[in-house]
Amino acid sequence: MNRTARLYALVEELRAAAPRPLTVAALAARFDISTRTVQRDLQTLMETGVPVRTTPGRGGGWSISPEMTLPPIHFTAEEASALTAALAAVGPATPYAGAARTAAQKIAASMTGPASTAARELAARIVTRPTRTDSEIRTAVEQALTHNVALRLSYTDASGRETDRVVEPSGLLTAEGRWYLIAWCRTRRAGRGFRLDRITAATPTDEQAQPHNLTDLLLGSTATDAVRPTTLASLAPQNDTESRSRRLNA
Asked: What b/e readout covers 101-131, taking b as 16+ CB neighbours within 10 angstroms?
């Protein structure tokens, strides 16, 4: 068993035993590996965000909440390749790029057989050109979107002019490989799009942002024809998907 498959199997072993903890020695015997290897694997799981925890003392050991893991997911080779290509497109400037890396590790740990082979073979044949980005700016944008707060930013437009603004984030737009923050600009009192790689500074405020409709903010812009990605349709709220799709395609 390779390490990727073992990490996934280790999670499922803990999940099957939950809430009862398992000792390192028991896990080592189960997978016929050393206790040192088990400790290293458990540390890796913790670093990638898997909710494993340790309880010291007699009767203690390692455990995981069964509600916090998914049952085995069986990808086809084509699905595994699609996920690999999608994850490869996530660059340093892409929103939630850090979380994408840990998600990729979890996906890799869930794949075995032909799916794992296809993903690894394709991953070895994809290269990317390095780009300069500021992870603090990306993190600030993520926090403003997640917590729905106003964002103070400095922005350099296409002509090289820099302005300072306070904006109320509404959503994200991706077009031709670039990402834009769509927001209500308090300075211009209108919807505006801010290319992420042109934001030179960003700081979330403690002011709650007012709700703004993403479609309305795009009206009159070059992105009026923006539509919801079809690959995300299954992630949208079921009672909201059809109405939003109609509005975005109107």
From this structure: eebbbbbbbbbbeebbebbeebbeeeeeeee
pLDDT tens-digit series, residues 182-210: 999 999 999 999 999 999 999 999 999 99
Task: Give the predicted TM-score (pTM) of the model.
Answer: 0.68
Task: Say what angle helices 24-31 and 3-17 make with each other, to 10 degrees.
Answer: 130
Which two three-digit tokens encode residue 128?
Answer: 């990317």
Task: Tell me phi and psi for residue 123, to 5 degrees.
Answer: -60, -35
DSSP string of the chain?
--HHHHHHHHHHHHHHHTTS-B-HHHHHHHHT--HHHHHHHHHHHHHTT--EEEE-STT-EEEE-GGGSPPP----HHHHHHHHHHHHT--TTSTTHHHHHHHHHHHHHH--HHHHHHHHHHHTT---------HHHHHHHHHHHHHTEEEEEEEE-TTS-EEEEEEEEEEEEEETTEEEEEEEETTTTEEEEEEGGGEEEEEEEEEEPPP--HHHHHTTSTTTT----GGGGGGS-TTTHHHHHHHHT-
